[in-house]
Amino acid sequence: MSIAEHFDDMSYGLSPESDAEARAWLARHNHSFGHYIAGGFTTPDASFQTFEPATGKPLAQLARGSAADVDAAVAAARKAQTAWAKLPGPARARHLYALARMIQRHARLIAVVEAIDNGKPIRETRDIDVPLAARHFTHHAGWAQLQATAFPDHVPVGVIGQIIPWNFPFLMLAWKLAPALALGNTVVLKPAEYTSLTALLFAELAAAAGLPAGVVNIVTGEGDTGALLVDHPDIDKIAFTGSTEVGRLIRQRTAGTGKSLTLELGGKSPFIVFDDADVDGAVEGVVDAIWFNQGQVCCAGSRLLLQEGIAGDFIRRLKRRMETLRVGSPLDKSIDMGAIVAPVQAERIRALVAQGVAEGASLYQAAIDLPANGCFYPPTLLTDVQPANVVAQEEIFGPVAVTMTFRTPDEAVQLANHSRYGLSASIWSESISLALQVAAKVEAGVVWVNATNLFDAAVGFGGRKESGFGREGGREGAYEYLKPKAMAGRKPRPVQPQIAARTASASDFAVPAIDRTAKLFIGGKQARPDGNYSRPVLTPKGAVIAEVGEGNRKDIRNAVAAARKADAWANTTAHNRAQVLYYIAENLSARATEFAARISAMTGRTTAKADAEVEASIDRLFSYAAWADKYEGTVHNPPLRGVALAMNEPVGVVGVICPPEAPLLGLISLTAPLIAMGNRVVAVPSAPHPLSATDFYSVLETSDLPDGVLNIVTGEPQPLAEALATHADVDAIWAFGTEALSEAVERLSASNLKRTFVDHGRLTDWHYPSAEGADWLRHATEVKNIWIPYGV
Ligand code: NAI
Ligand code: MG
C-alpha cells in the first residue's frame, strides 16, 4: 500500500506486543504446572489442559486439585498462619510492598501471559489489570503497617479459602490476597480453570520476593476442587467471586459451619442516560461499560436505560461508534476487544441472544471483521427489549448491551431496580442534583456518575441483593478479613427448655382491659396472631405469669409487609432517628421499675440484676441515639480527579431473632443499631421471657417511632426464623440462639442471598461494652460508593 493509500484508508496496521518472554516462561515449565503448596510446586498426578482463547491452541497442562492436594494446602496455610499473624504489622507491610514491587518489575510478562491465557486485550492487562493489582498490594501494605492503630480491637480470621473467576484472573487474585495477607491471614487460592497461569506466575514471584512458605498456596482445578476447599473443615472463611448460582451453593454448603463468607456475584447493571447528558461522552461510556473485557465483567453496564427524548439519537450514534470497534488478537495493541474466554462461554452468549431475539428484541451487530479462528463474538446491541425479556434479566457475560427507555427519573429508578441483582450503576446527566438524587435511590454497591468501571484499592467494591455480600477494598473490605476480639472464646449457650403452645381460649385476645394474653405488634398496632394459638410465659418455678400470642408464617408475612411500608424511615434524617431513640430511652426510663419487676418475675433474677439490665438497656438506646448521626461515611480520594463518597446505607428490612437470655437488653442491643441506621425490623423476642418485648409496645406507642419500623412477633424462634429466611422481601437476618437456628438461617437465606449475622449458639455478654458500637453498626449498614469525577 502506498502512503497516499494509507491516508485514504486510515486503518490501523498490526501492532503486536511480543509474546517471546511469556512463551519462554511456559517452555521453562515444560508447559506443565503443579500446585503451589508450602512454598514449592508439586508434581501433578492428574491434570487438565488449558487453551489459548484467541487461537484455540493448547497452552499448558494444569494440575487437577484432589482432596489430598487441598488437605496439604490447608495444612500448609494453617501451619504458617500463627507466625504470619504474629509478625508485627510493619513487617507484613514490607512483604506486601515487596509483592507490589515484584508485580511492577514483571508487569510486562504478567500482562502478556494474562492476555494469552484469557484472551483480553494487552491494552487492558497492561494499563488496567496489572497496575491495579500492584496498587492493591501497595494500598494494603498500608493497612498492615497501620493495623495496630487502625484495627486495635480485631484479630485476623485465620485460614482463608479464596475462589476466583476467569474474567480478571490476576486482578481478582490481588483483590483477594492483598487484604487477607495484610491483616494476618493465610490463604489457599483456587484460580478459575480457564485462567490459572498468572496465579502460578504470581506464586513464583512471591517465592522470589521471600514470602514465607505456606502464607499463599495455589491449588488449581475445576469446580469440584473449589467445592473441596469450600467443604474443608479447617478453613475459617470462604471468599468467592463468580456466578450467583455457585455463590448460592456455597452459602448452603457453609451454613452452620461457622465459616465466614463473602460473595461477589453477578450483575445486570443499569447504565442510565438522561436527556441532558453529554451524549458523545455517554456513548464512549457504553464502550467502556459493555465492550471492556468483551463484556465479561460482573459490573458491566449491560442495561442501557435511555430517556425517551434522546433514545433515537443515542442509539444511532452508538451504532456508528460500534462500526469503528476493532476485534482481534489480544496481543495487538490497537484492538478494542479480544477473545471470549472459552467456547462454552461464547455458546452461552449466542444462546441468550437468540432467546432474546425470539422474545422480541431487535439485534444489531456492526459489520466488522472477526478473526477467522479462535473464540470471538462481535459487539452487540439489542433494542426493543421489554423488561421481562430474558436478556434484560439474565447476566449475559458477553459484549451484549440491551436498551430500554424511560420517561421520568422515577421511572428510571424503577427500571434500574427491577432486577434481582444490585452490583453497580452508571448515571449520565449534566445536572449534578439529578445524578445524585438517582445515585441515592439505585440499589447498588457502586455508582459511577458520568463514568463507568472505575476501580481503586481504597474504594470498596461489592453488591446488594443477589449480587452478593461483603466488600473488597478500602476499610470496609479490611473488616472482611478481621473479627472482633470479643467474639473469640465465647461460651456455648445453655440449652433452653421447649415451650408448648396451646389453642387460645375464646376470651384470650378479646378484652384488652383484662387481657392476660399479649398480642403481636405489627404496623404500629397490636394484632391477634393469625393461628389463634398462644404460649404460656413461666416463672423459673413453672408458674404461668401470662400468655403471649404464638406467631406463625402468616404473621411474619404481615409484619414484613408492615416493615416494607415503613421504607420512608430510611430517608428520615439521622438527627430525626436520634431524636426518636432518645425519646424511647426517656420513656423506658420513666418506667424502669416496672420493666425490672417483669424481668425478675420471668427470670428469677435479683432486683439489683434486673435493675441493671433495664439501666443497661436505657443506656444502649442513648448510645445508638448518639451513633445515629455519627456513624458516617468517608470521602475517598482515588487516583483520579474526583472523589468517591462511601455512604453507609441501611440494609433494608431485617429479621431479628433475639437471644433467650437478657429479654430486654437482648432486644434493645439488636434492634436499636438497626433502627438507628434506618432499617425496618421484624423482631422475634426471647422465647422464654417475651414479656419485656410485649411491654415495650406501649413505650414505642408514646415515642414517635413511625408505624412498622419495629414489629414484634412472639412465638417459637426456629419456625419464625425460617419464615423470615425464606421470605423474598427480607434483606437480612440477625439470629441469636441455638446452633441449629444459625444453620437454618444461613442455609435458607441462600434463596435471595440475604445478609446474615448469627452467633452459632455462642453467648454474647450483653453487658460488655463490646455488645454495642461500630461492629454492630457495620452489620446494620451497607456501603455504597458513589464515584464523582470532577476534572480532567
Ligand atoms: P463459576 O461461578 O462456575 O466459576 C467461578 C469459580 O468458581 C471458578 O474458579 C470455578 O472453578 C469455581 N467453582 C465452580 N463450581 C464450584 C463449586 N461448586 N464450589 C466451589 N467452587 C466452584 O462460573 P463459570 O462457570 O466460569 O461461568 C458461568 C457464568 O457465571 C458466566 O457466564 C457468568 O454469567 C457467570 N460468572 C460471573 C462472574 C462475575 O464476576 N460476576 C465471574 C464468572 C462467571
Ligand atoms: Mg461453572
UniProtKB/TrEMBL annotation:
<protein>
    <submittedName>
        <fullName>Aldehyde dehydrogenase family protein</fullName>
    </submittedName>
</protein>
<comment type="similarity">
    <text>Belongs to the aldehyde dehydrogenase family.</text>
</comment>
<feature type="domain" description="Aldehyde dehydrogenase">
    <location>
        <begin position="46"/>
        <end position="486"/>
    </location>
</feature>
<dbReference type="InterPro" id="IPR029510">
    <property type="entry name" value="Ald_DH_CS_GLU"/>
</dbReference>
<keyword id="KW-0560">Oxidoreductase</keyword>
<dbReference type="Pfam" id="PF00171">
    <property type="entry name" value="Aldedh"/>
</dbReference>
<dbReference type="InterPro" id="IPR016162">
    <property type="entry name" value="Ald_DH_N"/>
</dbReference>
<feature type="active site">
    <location>
        <position position="264"/>
    </location>
</feature>
<dbReference type="InterPro" id="IPR011408">
    <property type="entry name" value="Aldehyde_DH"/>
</dbReference>
<feature type="domain" description="Aldehyde dehydrogenase">
    <location>
        <begin position="538"/>
        <end position="760"/>
    </location>
</feature>
<dbReference type="InterPro" id="IPR016163">
    <property type="entry name" value="Ald_DH_C"/>
</dbReference>
<dbReference type="InterPro" id="IPR015590">
    <property type="entry name" value="Aldehyde_DH_dom"/>
</dbReference>
<dbReference type="InterPro" id="IPR016161">
    <property type="entry name" value="Ald_DH/histidinol_DH"/>
</dbReference>
